[in-house]
Q: What sequence folds into this?
């Protein structure tokens, strides 16, 4: 009876919908679209325009220079060449060394929390907790912990290392702090992925006499492939966007070695106000990130 | 048993740094610089909190706290309002260009946000919003996550109720406010918490668009505090506690929603 009335209602909607007025969808969309156009779409196009000018925020004259800002990034004799590529290198190093840990360690964490046991929700919350803190709180806290004179870490390990001022320690500190801070995020995503793997696959593996390792290799890992692609892609992007940790923890030390690309671009654009050049750099970095993402998609597709 | 040993060891790694920060904020300056370091203060003092609550014209910490609270709350409300309206249109209404619009909005999720920072700065400047809380509240609400997240949720709601209401002469505004929104409380709560957290913690945007100490929020404020009290770690850690404890409490109260939301964002791939 109920299903009958519902069906009747459904068939009548076709005649009801137009009565709500043609403007209705646009009225619902208007507030968001206004924000989207002004703060996302317009900047995306405006940024390209800026990158084609010698755009100094503090100067009235902003002459059109064509692709000069881009050419300067490829010209070893230009003023920005050395610093820009050093910052790109720093971003590359950080991405290369942080992504493997940020992809593998959360998987271990998720395996530990996968099966139900007493206190599971509590531990999951505990490991996720650092992620809800902002980069400013996390960096300041770890600056003290890693302080060579007062810090707990050097004292515990009985060593005397300038974690934030010398290499390779600054990189180890940046990667370590980032892992501590964000491990819960990828962990939770893996957990959700594991929950989606059908139970009967595990049961079948058990019937076949698979051990824990075989079960992990042949059931869990393949089942996590779609989630894995998401984790790897977003982690690469997040690492390549690293800014706060290097700004607050190492302040680019030593000698700008840990100053990441975003750090350098924002410093050029929003502190030194050389916006044309900085805008060009941000598009070059974006292009590099798109290439890496495409490569990453290809790799995953080939393996599946 | 082995599992619990491992879990306990990991728990120490995650919790000890937080306790150390809290402990340091309650130490006297001499104890904070003492070697070997103490995990908990031997004689807890609240001097550091006194210092930050009193504040100075360069470091009005309580003002920053209020700014953070105001900005994050208004930002959250704005995100909920504009995202739910747009998501309803994208999930329930038919109109020309719907597919294209959805694709354009969602594709911006894949573009790293920093690309827009410089032109956004200039647009904010044109609007006269530089150095004001408005700059921290409004632009971020243009992000596509909320729209995408709510649209997926609305698509999962049964259509029968909407259709029955339409037959009885309800318009879409009534359906949206009386059926869709009440049924979407968990999704709205998740989006509310996530957008509040993101805004409360934002560092990169406020350090560039805010110049006056009285309009800072806590995260950029902390970096000022660090500059002003270079080696007075109890004061700096008291600032970190003030910025960190509210979100940890919020997380403890809403853990289910936060983790649910994050999990679902991963499954869209």
A:
């Amino acid at each position: 009876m109920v299903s009958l009335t519902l069906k009747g209602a459904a068939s009548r909607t076709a005649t009801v919908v137009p009565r709500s007025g043609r403007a209705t969808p646009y009225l619902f969309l208007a507030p968001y679209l206004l924000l989207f156009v002004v703060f996302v779409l317009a900047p995306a196009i405006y940024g390209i325009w800026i990158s084609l000018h010698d755009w100094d925020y503090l100067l009235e004259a902003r002459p059109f220079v064509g692709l000069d800002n881009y050419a300067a990034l490829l010209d070893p004799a230009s003023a920005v060449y050395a610093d820009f590529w050093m910052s790109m290198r720093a971003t590359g190093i950080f991405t290369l060394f942080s992504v493997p840990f940020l992809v593998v360690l959360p998987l271990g964490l998720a395996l530990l929390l996968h099966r139900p046991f007493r206190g599971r929700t509590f531990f999951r919350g505990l490991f996720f907790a650092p992620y809800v803190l902002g980069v400013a709180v996390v960096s300041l806290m770890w600056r003290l912990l890693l302080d060579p004179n007062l810090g707990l870490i050097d004292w515990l390990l009985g060593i005397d290392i300038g974690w934030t001022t010398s290499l390779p320690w600054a990189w180890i500190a940046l990667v370590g702090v980032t892992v501590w801070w964000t491990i819960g995020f990828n962990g939770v995503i893996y957990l959700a992925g594991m929950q989606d793997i059908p139970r009967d696959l595990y049961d079948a593996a058990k019937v076949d006499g698979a051990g824990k390792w075989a079960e992990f290799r042949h059931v869990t890992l393949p089942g996590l492939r779609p989630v894995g692609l998401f984790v790897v892609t977003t982690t690469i992007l997040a690492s390549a966007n690293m800014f706060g940790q290097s700004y607050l923890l190492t302040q680019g030390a030593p000698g700008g070695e840990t100053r990441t690309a975003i750090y350098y671009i924002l410093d050029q654009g929003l502190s030194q106000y050389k916006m044309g050049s900085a805008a060009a750099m941000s598009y070059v970095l974006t292009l590099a990130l798109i290439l890496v993402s495409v490569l990453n998609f290809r790799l995953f597709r080939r393996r599946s | 048993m082995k599992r619990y040993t491992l879990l306990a060891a990991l728990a120490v790694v995650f919790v000890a740094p937080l306790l150390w920060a809290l402990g340091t904020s309650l130490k006297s300056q001499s104890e904070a610089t003492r070697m070997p370091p103490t995990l908990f203060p031997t004689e807890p003092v609240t001097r550091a909190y006194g210092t930050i609550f009193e504040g100075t014209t360069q470091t009005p910490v309580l003002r920053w706290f209020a700014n953070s609270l105001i900005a994050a709350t208004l930002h959250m409300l704005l995100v909920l309002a504009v995202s739910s309206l747009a998501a309803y249109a994208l999930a329930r209404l038919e109109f020309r260009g719907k597919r294209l619009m959805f694709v354009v909005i969602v594709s911006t999720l894949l573009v790293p946000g920093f690309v827009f920072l410089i032109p956004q700065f200039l647009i904010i400047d044109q609007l006269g919003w530089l150095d004001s809380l408005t700059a921290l509240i409004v632009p971020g609400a243009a992000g596509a996550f909320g729209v995408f997240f709510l649209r997926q949720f609305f698509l999962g709601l049964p259509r029968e109720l909407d259709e029955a209401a339409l037959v009885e002469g309800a318009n879409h505004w009534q359906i949206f406010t009386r059926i869709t929104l009440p049924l979407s409380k968990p999704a709205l709560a998740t989006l509310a918490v996530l957008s509040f957290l993101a805004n409360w913690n934002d560092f990169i945007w406020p350090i560039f668009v805010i110049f006056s100490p009285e309009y800072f929020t806590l995260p950029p404020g902390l970096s000022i505090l660090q500059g002003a009290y270079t080696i007075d770690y109890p004061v700096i850690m008291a600032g970190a506690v003030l910025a960190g404890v509210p979100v940890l409490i919020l997380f403890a109260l809403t853990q289910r929603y936060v983790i649910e939301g994050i999990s679902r964002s991963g499954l869209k791939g």
Remarks:
- Residues 94-258 of chain A form a domain with the MetI-like fold fold (CATH 1.10.3720.10).
- Residues 81-114 of chain A form the longest helix (34 residues).
- Residues 84 and 261 of chain A are 7 Å apart (CA to CA).
- The mean pLDDT of chain A is 89.
